[in-house]
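Assemble and predict.
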Amino acid sequence: MTKLTATRLSETPGLNPRPSRKKPLLKKPLLKRIAKGGFVAALPFLAPALAAYVVFVIGPMFSAVRLSLYKWSGFTTDQQVFVGFQNYVRLFTKDPVFWTAVQNSIIWVLLSLVIPTSLGLMMALALNRPVFGRNVFRSVFYIPGVLAPIAIANMWRWMYNPNYGIFSDISKTLHLGDGSGVTFLSDPKVAIYAVFAAFVWQVAGLNMVLFLAGLQSVSKELVESAKLDGANAWQVFRNVTLPALRPTVVVVLVLTIVNSIKVFDLVVGMTGGGPAQKSQVLALWSYTQSFLNHDFGLGNATATVLLLITLVLVIPYMIWSTKGNED
Amino acid sequence: MRLLAKGVAALAAVALLAGCGASASTTSNDSGKTTVTWWTINQSSPSADAQIDKIITDFEATNPDIKIERTSRAVDAHKDALRTAIGTSAAPDIYNYWAGPGLGGELVKANASADLTEYYKQYNWQDRFTGAALNPVTQYGGYQGVPWKLNGEALYYNKALFAKAGITKLPTTIDELNDAAAKLKAAGITPIEFGGTVNWHVMRLLDTFLEGYCGSAKFDQLVTKKANWGQEDCVTKSFTNLATWSKDYLNPGFIGINNDESSALFYNGKAAMALEGDWFNKNISDQKVNMDDFGVFPLPTGTGRLYGFEEAEYITKDSPHKDAAAKFLDYLTSTKVQQEVLGTFATQSVNKAVTPKSGGNALSTSWDSIFKNAKGLYMNNDQNLSQSSTTEYWRIQNLVATGGMDPNQAGAEFQKFLDSNN
């Protein structure tokens, strides 16, 4: 049997799974490149969106960084006092919750990159075949993704309720106790994972839809060709489907990172960061510092750290992705 | 260019409309009425909510030139909304808030509230309110706010469950309370219910232990940072008792459920005690259960002080409708209205001319006695401490309650935070 290799696939005309890494033909000065690229002509059309972006995104971002250098209670009636990097020193050395929030945020991102993405891909592969009830299943899996996160939080909080929840009922039905042992949200070691389960339920369907869209771009001819060459299902997936899904995978991973690092609603709705701040995450801790503790300096320092982490994680992906498109 | 011009015109129109919308809430409306905006916390029962609506309707009927526009929010949403609105045109004319230094005091410090001395003179409010009710609104100098309700907190209990556990005498010390809880547990009954999601319900238990084990003087020194939390044995004893109660006597999973859910355990006879305020009378009666099945006794700290807090109605410093707002507050705290609502929001009125209801239920009668016999007041610690200290107090409390921290370390851990935030 002929073994299908990536080399053979790359030799197939027009079906190179790896985009070429050609350098731009000319390195013209920036202004010339902008002029040639039609940027000036596009500017009037871009201006309204750009203005909104500056006012509602860039402006608040700079404002947050600026406020992280001040001591301020958040009231417009209260004076802002410049304290330099004092808030960052407090955050890194004296804040009893910050490092727990950092740790939980990292755990959340790592788990998000593995569990809901894999589940989404598996569901997409399963439902990309002509199986009975395919559209119904697609809808069912997608529905959690369109529900408000706070509604999902309420729903799962009830499911976890040790007195009336479904897990408690199952435990009683299976004679595993009186249900009172079902304390997922009360256990400091388990709470963050219990909330994460709700997140998986929420986003796996969304990932599935993205992967399904990506799967439509996989050439049927190439799959057939691979099968004729004797490739088994895994080899077809590994050498044909997965390379063709590369842009989709990038989009899913970037969206997953962004969505998971800014997770807020589910944690607020299910645990409020508790018990004992053990399910605290950076976005919620920033909010808590500012709006509950009346410490906008510390809250914005937390938000700035969160911003930097997000940029460090997302910018390499964006550059890589943009280069791919330009090529 | 024409497209650009149209876009600019559209943006200008939107800005103009937005500007009109923003100013509408702070000026008199077209019909010549003055609209007074009033932000309140959600009431604890539907009947209390209906009572507030009735007060507004009655006031508007006798004052046709004033319209009261009430916005009610959950506790945390109320705090957030005030924070973002104070000092802007979106601020209400009147806001309802707790009067303790950690909450109402912080807003006073932030210049959110107006000094109402001139209205106290105009309406003779100095003579209207009890001394206990006036203390919290005069502690910052001048008159910051108008007393609305003074709530006491105590232990509600299920008489049948106490009898079943063989408890014949109500506890008067923390040690006796510990014994009662042990008896209830031995009888297969959940001794007390709590919902832990918002922290302040479990905090009541810890505050009680602190007052009981440390005594009044030391308790006051601790909350005013005049005593060291890490060096007091009574603090360690209190946290140790909290750990015991959390493990053995509270409803399982209490940290992960909210207080409404846990209260159902008390109403349904599945938990023997609830540490609640006098507003809880109304909650019980709303459940259509027999009020005589329940009793209430003071927190057995042995100090004689009442555990509680006051809520006041504050007029914002920048309110353009101070006169109308003061007129409404005069009506709200008048003897007529306070007599009508007695028992709905609190069992005792802040208005000293209001007389206790005759023929009230046994719970109301018990509360009359609790207030009458109280030797002073100690407030909930989220009222005493600053917001950031409260957040840390709750974190340590919950760590101890869930077994995540050795109770012997708790006092020192809290002191470390207080020291680093000075």
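Chain A is about 70% helix and 0% strand.
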